[in-house]
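worker-3 :: picked Cupin
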Amino acid sequence: MSKISTLNAEHYKWGDACDGWHLLKQDDLSIIHEKMPPQSAEVRHYHVFSRQFFFILNGELLIEKDGEEIQLGVHQGIEIPAGTSHQIRNESAHPAEFLVTSQPPAHGDRVVVKKVKSISTVTL
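worker-3 :: tokens ->
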């Protein structure tokens, strides 16, 4: 078994100049270390099958979960059940780092949700 860290893990970019490192990438489980610069945000979305757990390592994040905004600081976390819309934002002046555990992995299981003013503006 080899040690894994951000120095040797598979790296990728996402969103507004955010970074991700696959610490564990298996068919049934994913653990990713992510870093968001100040004033960045992820697109609002949900996962059909994947449930996730976000755990803050450094900084703070605002997580919108089904319309409720939850502020998370260092060593705090939250579960996002499958089918629950969510968006992560770093509204602070400092970078934020966190772990995302997904079961099963969330890649390819994301549905983008757009906020609308009224149901009459939605087209299918």
